[in-house]
């Protein structure tokens, strides 16, 4: 189970996987950080697909913890799964649950599309201010639980932008078995 999870150092947008996960914002219309990088490298087709989702499914924006899937434009990955992480300190103590929802819902969506490989950034740990050590505990526990269920996913990559973030994850992860 934890054997299906691999840690990477590098750029999420270069991952050759079935889906990469975008740490989007509620607007789905692009932002900074990893979101900006995905839209820059993937091209305008992703933004158009996001606009379509806003028009048809989420006119008020994507709620925190939910996930949607789009094409990946010019990216190497096959799809982009967009999810909105919690802003640390702004959800009245529900931050951990909402961060877990991001990972859980992205994996459920990947399974619905029969995808085998998926790569995540460290959702919410940038501009949204989630402490990397706390995120590591939640993410490792959530992934372990999710992969215990019947799923098409055979590989989960956690892609860190900086060595320090990868080290923090390793120090604080709660994988068992
Ligand atoms: P959020 O708003 O959810 O905090 P950010 O994009 O600000 O999202 O940051 C999330 C994490 O993604 C941070 O750890 C940041 O360093 C990292 N990051 C930024 N750009 C990339 C990238 N191209 N590939 C992988 N990780 C990235």
UniProtKB/TrEMBL annotation:
InterPro entries linked: Macro_dom, Macro_dom-like
UniProt cross-references to Gene3D superfamilies, sorted A to Z: Leucine Aminopeptidase, subunit E, domain 1 (3.40.220.10)
Listed PROSITE patterns: MACRO
Pfam families given in the database record: Macro
Domain Macro: 1-177
This protein's name: RNase III inhibitor
Organism: Dechloromonas denitrificans
Lineage: Bacteria, Pseudomonadati, Pseudomonadota, Betaproteobacteria, Rhodocyclales
